[in-house]
Structures are given as C-alpha cells and as structure tokens.
Amino acid sequence: MSSETTGASYASAGVDIEAGDRAVELMKEWVKKTRRPEVLGGIGGFAGLFDASALKRYERPLLASATDGVGTKVDIARRLGVYDTIGHDLVAMVMDDIVVCGAEPLFMTDYICVGKVHPERVAAIVKGIAEGCVLAGCALVGGETAEHPGLLGPDDFDVAGAGTGVVEADRLLGPDRIRSGDVVIAMASSGLHSNGYSLVRHVLLERAGLTLEGEVAELGRTLGEELLEPTKIYSLDCLALTRTTEVHAFSHITGGGLAANLARVIPDGLYATVDRSTWTPGPVFDLVGRSGDVARLELEKTLNMGVGMMAVVPAESAEAALTTLADRGVEAWVAGTIAERGEQESAAGLVGDYAV
C-alpha cells in the first residue's frame, strides 16, 4: 500500500479545511449586511481594512478598543443547539464597553473556536454577530474560525471578539465630568445578559435540577429560552443620548454587578446612591436566588439585577434623557444621585440602598 493512502494528513488529525471553506461561504451574506462606507474589500483577506481618512472630520480623534467573550453562556447555546443569538451577546459585551466613553463603534472582528467545524453552525454564530453589529452600528470586518480537535469536543465552541470605536477628545466621557448633584439613570436589562452563568448553571441546572426544555411558570417560557435571551445592545441608544442632552458618564453593568461597575466611573471625593425601590428585578433573578439560597449580596455582585447600562447626567438633563430613551423604546428611570463623599459615606457598602 502506498504512502499516499497510509500517510497522516490534516484531515486525519481532525481538521476539515473544506468544511471551513464552506462555513466562510455561508457567512458572507451576513457579514455583508454590516458593511459601512469606510470598509474596504470583503471577507477572505488576511486583514480587514477600514478607511481611516473618515476620521479627518475629528479635531483630535481618540480610538477606543475593547475585547471580550460571553463566558459559559455558550454552554446553554450548545445544549439547546441554538447558535444564532450568542453573537448578539458578543457584540454587546464588546461594543457597549466602547460606547461607555462616548465613542462611536466603528468595526469589530471575531474569533470562533470549535472542536469540529459544522459549517451551518458556524454560519449561524456569525449571523448573530452580524445582526448584533447592525444593532451597534459597526462593521464586522473580519474574523477567524479555528478547529481544535482533541482540545475541544466535536460540539464544543467558544467565541470572542475585539472592537474599535472613535470619540472626539473633548467629548470623552468619564469620571472627570461627574459632579455632585448629578443623577443616575438606569436602563433596563433584557435579562441575565452574559455574566454570572457559572453561578446560574450551578444553581438552576445542578442544584435545582431544572431542565432547559422545561416551562417555568414565573418566567412565562422555558428556562432555556430565558437563559438564551440575548444581551441588549445599548450602543446607539447611548450615542443618541450624547447627541440630544448632556451626559457625563456611562457604566456598562457586566461582571461584578451594578455597584462595582458604577464605582468605576465615580471620581474620588464623590459617591453614588442608587435606590433599589425604583425598580423590581425580573423574575429570573429571584429564581436564581431562591433556587440556590444565594445571599442578596452575592446576587448583586454577580448579576446585573435588571439594569444593563447606567448614565450619569446633570439633574436638569434627566427629563430630556428619559424622553430620548423612551422614544427609542428603552425602559429607563432615575435610580440615584451623586453627592460629595464625607466620613460616613467613605465606608458605605451595599446595605439598604446601593452606595458606591
């Protein structure tokens, strides 16, 4: 028998190049939908190209970049065989971090790692990413699909992404703009978003023994549908706020919960108080807490508790901000205030209202 039939090959090692090529062909139509005028070329090159001359309209353009994944939420998608929503989560995790400083999302790249390339599955993941990019106003200029047999099981996968945005230097948002007397506006989350799923999976699937396919009366749908609810993408809503009213800062509520993320934009000498009574977290948060006997503080430092983004604005801008968000279909409310920090507040923690 000749060496041509007995010799090792990439395919015999578990990597299917033809399947990868097929996946690329299937995803092209979705990537095309994200195209912006500044994008040059198409999918298939070694690098995505973005015409930076478009930034000439800026006096001093600052580029903002971020990278992230969606954590163990991918396990829920894998178990249910639903792959076209996880991309929304990825875009939200990346681009909503970028918009926090007031930057306009420009473009994004993705990285999809699989144990075995199933072309339709990879294309479905990219479809979700592309749809998310449209919602964020950015282009998907490239990506990588890597097949890692032996390292990942045939049905295992993970996703990650990186994005770039731009903001005029004198419009950069953040702690330096916040003043005593400002108010904190909360924007409702669409559910758990993409953080805390290691706790959620442990509590609901392992300890409580719930099934993803089972109906949960208080949720009004199956547990799987609730857990796969895509993360809300706030990028264009936040940019609309910066155009219609004065905004001092945003805070994207992700890992670490509301208090830890809001604290990241509060300057020394000031503190924020957020009144819990201004909203009621959705039923999934109570379900997690009750099913696992999870302490309230543990929930609050792990999950978003119904708030996905916060804006800090001058008190006189609050009404206009709420109107803008309402016009865009975003549920929002005044949830707190900013004040000068004294000796009493310097030791404030999560007792009663949030104080950060």
TrEMBL record:
<keyword id="KW-0658">Purine biosynthesis</keyword>
<keyword id="KW-0547">Nucleotide-binding</keyword>
<dbReference type="GO" id="GO:0006189">
    <property type="term" value="P:'de novo' IMP biosynthetic process"/>
</dbReference>
<keyword id="KW-0067">ATP-binding</keyword>
<dbReference type="GO" id="GO:0004641">
    <property type="term" value="F:phosphoribosylformylglycinamidine cyclo-ligase activity"/>
</dbReference>
<dbReference type="InterPro" id="IPR036676">
    <property type="entry name" value="PurM-like_C_sf"/>
</dbReference>
<dbReference type="InterPro" id="IPR004733">
    <property type="entry name" value="PurM_cligase"/>
</dbReference>
<dbReference type="GO" id="GO:0005829">
    <property type="term" value="C:cytosol"/>
</dbReference>
<comment type="pathway">
    <text>Purine metabolism; IMP biosynthesis via de novo pathway; 5-amino-1-(5-phospho-D-ribosyl)imidazole from N(2)-formyl-N(1)-(5-phospho-D-ribosyl)glycinamide: step 2/2.</text>
</comment>
<comment type="similarity">
    <text>Belongs to the AIR synthase family.</text>
</comment>
<feature type="domain" description="PurM-like N-terminal">
    <location>
        <begin position="59"/>
        <end position="167"/>
    </location>
</feature>
<keyword id="KW-0963">Cytoplasm</keyword>
<dbReference type="GO" id="GO:0005524">
    <property type="term" value="F:ATP binding"/>
</dbReference>
<dbReference type="Pfam" id="PF00586">
    <property type="entry name" value="AIRS"/>
</dbReference>
<dbReference type="InterPro" id="IPR036921">
    <property type="entry name" value="PurM-like_N_sf"/>
</dbReference>
<dbReference type="GO" id="GO:0046084">
    <property type="term" value="P:adenine biosynthetic process"/>
</dbReference>
<dbReference type="InterPro" id="IPR016188">
    <property type="entry name" value="PurM-like_N"/>
</dbReference>
<keyword id="KW-0436">Ligase</keyword>
<protein>
    <recommendedName>
        <fullName>Phosphoribosylformylglycinamidine cyclo-ligase</fullName>
        <ecNumber>6.3.3.1</ecNumber>
    </recommendedName>
</protein>
<dbReference type="GO" id="GO:0004637">
    <property type="term" value="F:phosphoribosylamine-glycine ligase activity"/>
</dbReference>
<dbReference type="InterPro" id="IPR010918">
    <property type="entry name" value="PurM-like_C_dom"/>
</dbReference>
<feature type="domain" description="PurM-like C-terminal">
    <location>
        <begin position="179"/>
        <end position="344"/>
    </location>
</feature>
<dbReference type="Pfam" id="PF02769">
    <property type="entry name" value="AIRS_C"/>
</dbReference>
